[in-house]
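Known limitations

Structure tokens in this collection are predictions and should be treated as such. Users comparing against experimental data should check residue numbering before alignment. To illustrate the layout, the record for C2 domain-containing protein is reproduced below. The input appears on top and the generated tokens appear beneath it.
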Amino acid sequence: MMQKPPQSVDFALKQTSPNIGAGSVTGDKLSSTYDLVEQMQYLYVRVVKAKDLPGKDVTGGCDPFVEVKLGNYKGVTKHFGKKSNPEWNQVFAFSKERIQASVLEVYVKDKDVVADDLIGRVMFDVNEIPRRVPPDSPLAPQWYRLEDRKGDKAKGELMLAVWMGTQADEAFPDAWHSDAASVSPDGIANIRSKVYLSPKLWYVRVNVIEAQDLVPSDKGRFPEVFVKAVLGTQALRTRISPSKTINPMWNEDLMFVVAEPFEEPLVLSVEDRVGSNKDETLGKCVIPLQIVQRRLDHKPVNSRWYNLEKHVMVDGEKKEMKFASRIHLRMCLEGGYHVLDESTHYSSDLRPTAKQLWKPNIGILELGILSAQGLMPMKTKDGRGTTDAYCVAKYGQKWVRTRTIVDNFMPRWNEQYTWEVFDPCTVITIGVFDNGHMHGGSGGTKDARIGKVRIRLSTLEADRVYTHSYPLPVLHSSGVKKTGELQLAVRFTCSSLINMLHMYSQPSLPKMHYIHPLSVIQLDSLRHQAMQIVSVRLSRAEPPLRKEVVEYMIDVDSHMWSMRRSKANFFRIMGVLGGMIAVGKWFDQICNWRNPITTILIHILFIILVLYPELILPTVFLYLFLIGVWNYRWRPMHPPHMDTRLSHADAAHPDERDEEFDTFPTSRPSDIVRMRYDRLRSIAGRVQTVIGDLATQGERFQSLLSWRDPRATTLFVTFCLVAAVILYFTPFQVVALLTGLYVLRHPRFRHKLPLVPLNFFRRLPARSDSML
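Generated tokens:
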């Protein structure tokens, strides 16, 4: 099979050499806990409070606020009405790269309708401002006497702290940034960096056993009873009970996903199918999940009877009627399973729900989100293209979001984050987005996706810092586009090599997945529900991690049909089989004596292995060992990244891309849907033919001894008897030697007609004759 050409240089991974502190001992670097990012200098101003401010308006009061000015950049605190001793406790951060002024000016002003009145000011020489580097304690604020414009003392004092620091400063995340001076006050919360935690998810197992003493309205018919269970937006139902009595039995499991804290109760209703589209409710019960037993293993939990309640109409009013009907349930919150809430291929966490079952971590993952380059304009503002970029990284239950860099195609974040690692065979996902909520409010806009990067931890060497620039390809209906590059620094530190190597012998999922496995259909449905719960919960945080961002990060739509992805998977299979095909071609050349010397050497090796069969397995494993050692020279030196050629993103037909981005259900015109349906029918026809051929070959094997063809079966059983007798008296080594020499015989002793066993097999009957 021909090798696919390498992908375009634009979509290739590039090694970088950022000026980070990892591996360095120079004094101007950040501390070792923050050494995967470049140092960024900021001038910090903490405005704490003021006292004894004079009144400026006719009423003798003042509405004070503080204005911090450095060159062309100006930050303003909120103002207080009629207060002479206000407290603000706000921090302002000015990027040193953009500082052009030599004086920092801090003004205290009185808010006025016409023009703000100056109460006083404090001036600082930028070159004289002290420097602070964590882990030093925060700089203590001091009282400063206010001055008027002439430099004379004014009434009132202002408490300030002013220092030079870096992005490692604890004041950095919540500070007002000069880079975001154009953002409205309502939108400030939407641009700050934040850490989020996914909600703790549980599987809820409801084993519906039986019900007793049901009271159907029509007592002259056999009731067709089923149980419907509703938990939030999830609704499941049992089958109709086979015992059509007032004491029906089911013994059926229903599985739900729920997140802590439990907000919705489980509502069970017993219903009778009285018509084709009509169900009558025979009773309901509401069960709060807080009282449900939690189990950590496969030991059965105690069952319990619950009374059923029914509402009846009396004089036009709904009244609750309690009676003797009841339902028998066995319910539990499953702590021994891992709730799958992301695509299986990119799982970042495989631990069970119950914390008691967690094992110690095996290492630490550190990620430095440095910068991006060459970002594409994602929206238009004032007639020009602009991008307000931020990053989101997800690993395990921890999500991180960097601050938004406003109106910049080459943003520099330089933020570092850390995760505990419990399994090396997991994936961290980093996505880049354009912030569509810069001016506050939810609005109808969405945060546009710029691209994402996945890094599998098992491909990283321990304790090595990887600094690469990752391409950000995004597939649109118009084709694949590179929207920029993301520069990252990654380090995986192993705390226990033995524990990490031991993980490779352990099952990937908790043991409950193997002791009481869930069906594939159940897992797909539960995964979809879990994804919805996670996206809803995170979108309710403040500031929200929006639904479109979460769904893109956890690949909600990865299960949808895509012709492009199907082709890519087919060629992946062919790539896997390519090695076997190459071995087959090589063996065919040996059998046909293309290179006589090689064939003679193979003969000698074969004879040695036949005479000394105890050497076969050692030879095989030694050969695999030598191949592995030989390939070590060409081992990958960088993590894998998004491959546009492997994904067939650059070769997809426009209609295939349009189909991939179609909604579900489809929103395309009927003629396009008809064309795509016919195309799927033709593809399915080919798949159907291949499956039929496989079934035919299997049925021919079955017919060897089924006497469907009496002559063929007679020949086969006779051959088996003769072979059994000959093999009983002939040493196995002789049989193996003769067979091998026959297979490796010279082309002079070969002919082009098929072999006799193959001719015999192809003549055997199959059940294809009985197909309509």
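For this record: The radius of gyration is 36 Å. The first strand starts at residue 14 and ends at 15. Please report discrepancies through the issue tracker.
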